[in-house]
Amino acid sequence: MAPVLLLHWNWSEIIDLAAQLQHHGWDVITESDDGVRAVQMALEHPPVAVAISLRTAAGHGRDVALALKEHPEGSAVPVVFFDGDERARRKARRAIPDAMIVGWEELPSAIARLAASPSG
What we know:
By secondary structure, the protein is an alpha/beta fold.
């Protein structure tokens, strides 16, 4: 099964977040610094989903999702935003209407639903 690409713009927290997803059975690739590298990773090896944190630098996460969706190959990659305040969630929903937006606790089950869907 394809891995989850986890994007969280705080390197000191991303290892813990990745470990929690791994505990749920997912292979996880992380990026905490470079949005361009994250898009390249998703295009070269499409993940089951790109999970993007809205906790910090929410605008950066939105920009990465938009850059991914601009590519024909990237338009099929599911995006799941997680956490963030209501304003960040509203902006993410406007930017990427087909993205899922969940809390951290719901992220593993959201990824599982995407992996089980016919297109996922």
